[in-house]
Design brief:
297 residues; 8-stranded parallel sheet; 11 helices; 8 strands; binds zinc ion
Length: 297
């Protein structure tokens, strides 16, 4: 079964991860722009980061047979960096129309400050202006209120709720999201957020409609194979193959295809690997024989 990890920060991961992901059946990913662990001090740093998501990282994923899409946004924490926030918003206005950008994100609340709310709304407006879906991160602390406030801002902005993916849900927030017209993401983590058995229980209770799972793997303790591992847990719990495929493939494909920049038919086809290729003169190989897949037709 082909799988999609719709929230993974591959810039922080290794080529071993890409190889293991492809072996486990992951055929496509979305890499949301995010927090790098420390605040950036220049708008230009964001620009180079956006360019690397659109360029090198996309190439790198392709070298392992994985289709790479990204979301661009000013993450919640850095909306509090007054010196750079407006500059990043201007930058986004120029970058959101680029190829491979399938949503605005991840945006949302961290500490639920005034600045966070202001840039949250501004970026919802940008999504409307650029006709893009939105990926919304919900806070780790005070998650329930953060989710309620996020849903209220979505309504206030007037964006179509079908274009909104609310991420990092728990047992407490999922019913709130499903009551709205938004899609519900779940980050399966080794320790916190959400686990395989808890996710199995949620799917048994709520079904597969508008349900999405991801690994949210990044530079912290996380596991880039959580989508295939959770699919296996679904299977062992007797959840139907139809429902599993809906959650790990059809739902993320359908959601991000709303951007007009993810072609469903193309995404269904295998991405042939040609490791003889380079990106601006750089290769992922270190002296190995390049893998070259035979092209059909
Ligand atoms: Zn993230």
């Amino acid at each position: 079964m082909k799988m999609f990890d719709p929230h993974i920060h591959m810039s922080s991961r290794t080529t071993d991860d890409y190889q293991a992901m492809q072996r486990a059946g992951i055929a496509a990913i979305v890499e949301p722009a995010f927090w790098m662990g420390q605040p950036r001090t220049h708008v230009g740093t964001f620009e180079d980061y956006f360019l690397s998501l659109l360029g090198w990282e996309r190439f790198r994923a392709g070298q392992f047979g994985i289709r790479h899409y990204c979301t661009l946004g000013l993450n919640p924490k850095e909306t509090n960096s007054a010196d750079i926030a407006d500059g990043v918003i201007e930058l986004l206005d120029r970058y959101l129309d680029k190829e491979g950008v399938v949503a605005v994100g991840e945006i949302g609340f961290d500490d639920e400050t005034e600045a966070e709310e202001r840039y949250f709304l501004l970026q919802l407006e940008l999504a409307i202006k650029h006709d893009l879906p939105v990926l919304i991160h919900t806070p780790h602390r005070d998650k329930k209120n953060g989710t309620i406030r996020s849903l209220a801002l979505v309504r206030e902005s007037g964006i179509d709720e079908n274009l909104v993916l609310i991420d990092h849900n728990t047992e407490e927030t999922l019913p709130l999201v499903l009551e709205s017209g938004c899609w519900a993401g779940h980050s399966i983590y080794p320790n916190t957020k959400m686990s395989e058995p808890r996710m199995v229980a949620l799917v048994q209770q709520y079904g597969s409609e508008r349900i999405i799972i991801n690994s949210a793997a990044d530079w912290g303790i996380s596991d880039p194979l959580k989508v295939p591992k959770t699919a296996q847990a679904f299977r062992e719990a007797g959840i139907s193959e139809e429902a599993i495929e809906t959650i790990v493939w059809r739902n993320p494909v359908r959601f991000f295809a709303q951007s007009g920049k993810l072609d469903i038919e193309e995404t269904e086809s295998e991405l042939p690997v040609d490791q003889r290729k380079q990106w601006e003169g750089n290769s992922v190989l270190r002296g190995q024989q390049p893998r070259v897949d035979e092209l059909e037709n």
